[in-house]
Amino acid sequence: MGGREKGEKDMSNEVIVNDSNFDQEVLLSEIPVMVDFWASWCAPCRMLAPIIEELAGEYAGKVKICKLNVDENQSTAARYGVRGIPALLLFKKGGIAAQSVGLQPKQNIKEMIDKVLA
Q1: Backbone φ and ψ of 40, nearest 5°
Q2: What is the pTM of this model?
Q3: DSSP, res 107
Q4: Which domains does the chain have, with CATH numbers?
Q5: Which of 8, 83, 114, 116 allows an S-S link to 97, with CB 3.0 to 4.6 Å?
Q6: Is the pLDDT of residue 5 over 70?
Q7: Residue 41 CA to chain centroid, in angstroms?
Q8: β-pairing, 95-101 with 87-92?
Q9: What is the dihedral of CA 54, 61, 63, 9, to 10 degrees?
Q10: pLDDT digits (tens, 9 = 90+) for 90-115
Q11: Are 87 and 101 in contact (CB under 8 A)?
């Protein structure tokens, strides 16, 4: 499934997605999926990363949390009109159910997820 990247601590609850596995991991998922569109050079993305890791643990089994590097997967980012990062897109049954752009407090992200789960 997710596999670990070198140098990253426990990412067992996060799935790394890319242009080739996006449809399978995200659009065909049985449960809602939140995708963090990010890039390594993006400071707000790095600030958001620990929050995304915490949410991946808190919502394990209810929401799949994925990360997509926009520099390495430009076609998927373009497909969803991602122009600013970090961008969080929450998919449910293959469609976008909610989204946010920019660094958000954890509580705001939780509220977005909880609305989609309700």
Answers
A1: -65, -30
A2: 0.89
A3: H
A4: 14-117 (3.40.30.10)
A5: 116
A6: no
A7: 17
A8: antiparallel
A9: 30
A10: 999 999 999 999 999 999 999 999 99
A11: yes
